[in-house]
Amino acid sequence: MADQSVTQLELQISIEDSSSDDLDTVTRHLRSELLDLNVESAELSPGAPAEPGTKAVDPITIGSIAIAILPPLLPKLIDFIQGWAGRGQGRTFKFKGTIAGQVIEYEGSHTDLQRLLATISTQTSSIP
Question: Are residues 110 and 85 in contact, defined by beta-carbon separation less than 8 angstroms?
Answer without folding.
Answer: yes
